[in-house]
Design brief:
This protein is mainly alpha-helical. Helices cover 75% and strands 0% of the residues. It has helices spanning 25-55, 57-66, 68-101, 107-114, 116-119, 122-133, 147-172, 175-183, 188-217, 220-226, 236-245, 249-278. Helix 2 (57-66) crosses helix 12 (249-278), helix 3 (68-101) packs parallel to helix 7 and helix 6 crosses helix 7 (147-172).
């Protein structure tokens, strides 16, 4: 006896169930308080900056972008922040790897030293860098009032970000998984590409995003070392301060909005890159 497949009833289409909220009354109250606190500290000030920039209209944005001094400051800030973030991705990951996987004399001291840029006031960081890499440098290296001074200052203040985001993930990554892959014939490069890198990708991109965001917003460590020379070493944060001192708040807000858009675009791009790398087989 044969069964006609055409006569069999079709299975009903699957419906996707709506996801129920798991928030309890106390959790909802906590979420509401957190949202209010976040709005007061972040959302409302950002909205006011955007509103201030919009009051001048598109003409303000156009004049800001066409201003040679402002355009040079924006290019320098974005380029140096990107270069520093890329270097931090490499060196920060290597430093985190050594701190997690190796034991050596002075490891505790190195852990403390890495966090110094977090605790040190940025103007003090600029003074330290100026004394070490300025005209009176004991090393004979003078990068003051050059673009290298901007790169060096940003590198100093952003050093801990990738290290501290990658380090906890490495602690949770079981070395036995790598050993098992290598015992099955995988080379060291394949193990890094297929096992280690996908696991570290979210942490690396998060640290790179923090590094880039800090770089484009840095001010204190650059004041003394870079000299704030127009069209040469002036960064966006200094340019914003110049506009405010001249009473042009709309132009200052426009530069701030441009940097905000750049930061959001960089964070979104890094998030997409992180998901693609972590999903690789």
């Amino acid at each position: 006896m044969t069964v006609d497949l055409l006569d069999t009833p079709a299975s009903p289409p699957r419906t996707r169930r709506a996801r129920r909220s798991t928030l309890t009354r106390s959790s909802g109250l906590g979420l509401g308080v957190a949202l209010v606190w976040f709005s007061l500290l972040v959302l409302i000030p950002l909205c006011l900056v955007v509103i201030t920039a919009a009051e001048g209209g598109w003409s303000t944005f156009s004049s800001v972008l066409q201003n040679p001094q402002t355009a040079a400051a924006l290019r320098l800030t974005v380029f140096e922040a990107m270069a520093v973030s890329l270097l931090n991705v490499v060196m920060g990951t290597l430093i985190a790897w050594v701190l997690v996987r190796d034991d050596f004399w002075g490891k505790r001291a190195l852990e403390v030293v890495i966090d110094i840029p977090f605790a040190l006031p940025t103007i003090v960081a600029g003074l330290v860098l100026l004394s070490l890499y300025g005209p009176t440098s004991p090393l004979g290296i003078d990068v003051a009032n050059t673009r290298w001074s901007v790169f060096l200052a940003l590198l100093f203040v952003t050093l801990p970000f990738v290290v501290r985001t990658v380090e906890p993930v490495l602690m949770e990554l079981d070395p036995e998984v790598e050993q098992a892959a290598m015992s099955l014939g995988a080379s060291r490069a394949t193990t890094v590409r297929r096992i280690i890198l996908p696991a570290l990708a979210p942490a690396i991109t998060a640290g790179a995003a923090l590094s880039f965001a800090r770089g484009i917003s840095e001010y204190g460590s650059l004041v003394l070392l870079s000299g704030n020379l127009p069209l040469k070493t002036e960064v966006a944060s200094v340019r914003i301060l110049t506009y405010i001192e001249n009473g042009n708040e709309a132009a200052a807000a426009s530069v701030a909005v441009i940097m905000l858009v750049v930061a959001l675009a960089a964070i979104a791009a890094l998030e997409i890159l992180s998901r693609r790398v972590s999903r690789r087989d």
